[in-house]
Structure formats: structure tokens, C-alpha cells
Write a structure and sequence with these properties.
Elements lengths: L2 H11 E3 L6 E3 L12 H7 L3 H67 L1
Antiparallel strand pairs: 1-2
């Protein structure tokens, strides 16, 4: 994983105390579109050493949490795809049942006319 990717992952899971700049881990990640600037923490009073130490200590926890989020997302996508496929299949079955009923009615009508 590149350094840029690691920082992006850390920023999704990190929040800073606005008054002291102390970093802490969020319970759920931020949306990917939302960006966070590490310099905000420095302006709030956190030193670069504190931020670097925190990032080194917390990286594997962040990585594990992000892995779990990715895993759940993969399966959610698969289940949604299956549901869409089943919904389309259900429509085909309905159309098939309708065609079957129309054929039966036509057979009854042709039998009555042919008799």
C-alpha cells in the first residue's frame, strides 16, 4: 500500500480534538469524498511527533477496520446484484405464467370452435 493510500485510509478513520489537536479513532469511517487536513491538527496545537507516533501505533487497527468495511461492502454488492437478478427472474416467471394462461385460453377457444 502506498503512503498516499495509507494517509487517505488514516484520514477516513481519524478525528482531531479541535481544541488540542489530539487525534482519536472514529467508530465508523468518514465518506471517501470528505477530506481532512492533517495540518488542522497542527494548527490546533498537536506536534508532528505526536501525530507521527499516533499514526504508527494506530495503523494496524485502522487497516483491520478498513479491511472489515471492505469485506462487508463486497458481500453487500454481491447480495444486491443477486437481488436484482432474482427480481428480473421473477418478472420473467410472471410473464411466463401469463403466456401459459393465454395459451390455455386459446386452446379452449379453438377446441370450442373446432367441435
Amino acid at each position: 500500500m502506498s503512503i498516499e493510500a495509507k494517509l487517505a485510509c488514516l484520514s477516513r478513520w481519524t478525528h482531531f480534538d479541535p481544541s488540542t489537536g489530539t487525534p482519536y479513532m472514529l467508530s465508523t469511517p468518514r465518506p471517501k469524498e470528505e477530506s481532512m487536513c492533517w495540518t488542522d491538527a497542527i494548527y490546533a496545537g498537536a506536534s508532528e511527533e505526536v501525530l507521527l507516533k499516533w499514526a504508527k501505533e494506530e495503523w494496524w487497527q485502522v487497516w483491520a477496520r478498513q479491511g472489515a468495511v471492505n469485506y462487508v461492502g463486497i458481500w453487500r454488492g454481491r447480495f444486491e446484484k443477486e437481488e436484482k437478478k432474482n427480481a428480473k427472474g421473477g418478472e420473467k416467471e410472471k410473464d411466463g405464467d401469463r403466456l401459459k394462461r393465454v395459451r390455455e385460453r386459446l386452446e379452449v377457444a379453438s377446441n370450442k370452435l373446432g367441435s
